[in-house]
Design goal:
The complex is a heterodimer of chains A (350) and B (216).
Chain A (H helix, E strand, L loop, with lengths): L1 H17 L20 E5 L9 E10 L7 E11 L3 E8 L12 E4 L4 E6 L14 E5 L8 E5 L4 E6 L3 E10 L11 E7 L6 E2 L1 E6 L4 E2 L5 E9 L5 E9 L4 E9 L12 E5 L13 E3 L4 E9 L8 H6 L9 E3 L6 E2 L2 E7 L5 E3 L1
Chain B lengths: L1 H16 L6 E2 L7 E8 L2 E4 L4 E5 L8 E9 L1 E2 L4 E8 L5 E8 L2 E3 L5 E3 L8 E3 L15 E8 L5 E12 L4 H7 L19 H6 L4 H6 L6
Parallel strand pairs in B: 4-13
Antiparallel strand pairs in B: 1-6, 2-3, 2-5, 5-11, 7-8, 7-12, 9-10, 12-13
The chains are: A mainly beta (350), B alpha+beta (216).
Chain lengths: 350, 216
Amino acid sequence: MWMMRLTAAAGLVLALATCGDNQSPYEPWILDTLTPAEGLWIRTPEFDVAPGAEIQYCYFFQVPAQTDGTLWVDRVELALNAGSHHMNLFRVKTLRGLKPEDGSPVDLGGVQGTEIREGECWKSPNWADWPLVANNQQSSIDHPIFEWAMPPGVAQKFDAGEMLMLQIHYVNAATQDTPFKGRGGANLHRSHDGDTMELGTLFATQQNIRICRSNPTSTYGGGCSMPQGTHTVAAANGHFHSRGRRFSIYAWDGVSTSRPPDSARFYQSEAWAEPDMATGLDVPLPQGGGIYWTCEYQWSEPADGCAALDEKDPLHANDCCYTFGPKVETSEHCNVFLYYWPKTADVTCF
Amino acid sequence: MLLTRAAMLGALALAACSDPPAACLGDCALPIELAPTGLRDGALVDLVDGATVDIRPPDQGGFVIYVGVRAKNVHARGGSVSGALRGLGGGATLAIEERPAAFVLRADGWAIPESGFQDQPNLPVCGPVPGPADFDQTAWQAVLAFRDSDGRTASTTVTVQPRCWGWAAVDCQCSCQFDRTGPCVPDDGDAGVDAALAIDAGVDAALAIDAGVDAP
């Protein structure tokens, strides 16, 4: 362990020495490396994000062999250099166009894996049924590390050999900038206190959204039902792009066909670039219910004009519409990332 | 003089920037009329009880059905359309969605969704299903509502039978198993994206012909 820390310290000195042109000294984040007894750790290589660029890379790796075949994780640390738009960690399920065997070998520190840059890594149908493990949208210079300890008795369960995929999106353009280089890392800390309640996750998205110049203020809302059983929300965050003004999540009774009352709202964020991750939640969802969420948008003039938006508009309406898409500069999202217990199923709503 | 001109330009700019009042599509002194619509074989169609609707893979992935309404006597711009699916006996609601309404006026006086894909609720249907059957083996009640820009509302219901559609049917049938835990095997050539949507934006030919007048 001390050797690894020494290496990290040397890396810090080297990084400081090579970043003389930046507006402030670059202090790379450091996460402790973990022994197998402590858990699982990965670090992506550093990569450039050129001015004007948006990049998305996918890193595949397997959960290493475990003494008893399973790894229970009750604390996560997710770290990002400044400029990241998001980091999502998924369990790999149905293989469509994005396949680990198509990637290039990459050293991820604690494990070896494969890397796919751009291409299929941008196409969300590829991970439509891949259960969410963890996510992070916090990548400011001052707060590069997000840490979350799951509720007492609760942990995430992984099988040895299970394939995971870490996806990182960086932007260095008009809406977000990457002042240094891109890089991400994760520590999945092994539970040592006998947690037996499994954490479940929910990933939901609004389909076919459209924020247009002619209807500049618009709201999309949707409900997502949970499997049978009682569930408690432990953490949640929302995700949209720069036209997003307010993201709200409510407990939903699973019966009513309209937006729940404000009293049922347990999450709200008006920050699009670094949206709040609400942890420490203890929100019981109604039996047989689920969640309802809303994305409120305000159209704004694109920095580079409307041509790119109009070109990708499936309706060809020439109305400068931001439609669904992964690119921050020219498209929009409306996604929920939610963590609940006890797990009854991996929930995806889209 | 300069000030007067500046004031006039300012007034003009303000006038140009303010939203025009939504025009009434029909006679807004009358109650709102609704009729259920949906997407079948890629075309926007009227729905009657028992009608089949496509389960299709949208751009984002996953599987949804598209159900909505056509409307009369509404201020459509600035309004919203919502949809929900629930069991025929009532009880649990499987999916629910509300989105802005972008409608066009048809020659017969009905306002119809500008796009069958983007202007009807997109209801995800292959997540956890509160029942003992695969989603596409079950009939559901669609509850459809419209709220116009004046806040007036109306709703209607229709029974629908979703079915896995076209080139993505094999993947759909696997993905929509209510108790699925393992991966599915995608259809040959499945990019996970509804190609029809990318090509023609989902407005079928017949609808495009009828939809001659843009809603203001």
